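Milestone M4 deliverable, item 7.
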Amino acid sequence: MRKDLQQLFNEFMYEYEYVRKIRPETVRAYRYTYALLTKMVPEISIDNISPEVITRFFKILQERKRVVGKGIVKVGIKKSTAATYWRKLNAFFGWLTVREHIPRNPLKSMLYPRPEYEDRKFLKKQQIEKIFAAIQNHSENLFLLKRNLALFYLLLFCGLRREEVTFLQIRDIDFEGKILTVRSETSKSGLTRRLPLHSVVLLYLRDYLKERRSYTSQYLIISSKQDDRLTYDGLEHLVKRLRERSGVRFHLHQFRHTFAINFLKKSNNIAKLKQLLGHKSILMTMAYLRCMPTDEMRDDIESMSIDALI
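Output delivered:
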């Protein structure tokens, strides 16, 4: 009996999750993209996958209206979001093609929606100060105060991704060697990396661990409601409250950009930054240069002269 598209997607996910060992966050992204595809184009099947059907999927996404926040209506999706969906579907359709379930990958004849990044991604000093002031002034109890300070100092001085920080375990912190280990199973690159810990981060981590002594969870950043790691929903709720109380519209990944820009400003060493961020290619690291402030390059320009030309 021929398998339907859902059965084949389940096999694809089983292989990717347990053989290729993709991260839990990536698993969720694949499942969400597939669910969105079947919701927007319910008639899609293994027999009618084509460039026309996939084009219709992206057209629906681009034209649909969504209500977000407090009744705000938005139309369409960002180009970066379209690119994410494209990559996830391309992997699945490629898998179907290799296993001869479909004759060809429909996305091979379609242009990749390459994202255009024009907005400033890093946070300025004043914005960082407002966020930390909101933590200091609005934490409900001492445990939350110390946990949130440790969490955001880790983000600011280590450049961690969301999944990396939420899956950190106590054993990943070497206080004696002043090293933090990001394990391969939680890293987007699939590579283990070790980061030198800033002395300020160590200070807040020690303070936080003293406060959470009654908890037994192996995870470092834990929920105040249960003895387990802080979930993505819990983290998003925290960010939402801090946005409201600080007046700064930010998302967690901006702390990674802030770390990158300020490290480059101090070290001017993109090779070191590549290693710290856990990138496989230095081209990925160079993407962070797009938000380098113009004023940071002014002295370099002024230092040039006719006499100093080669």
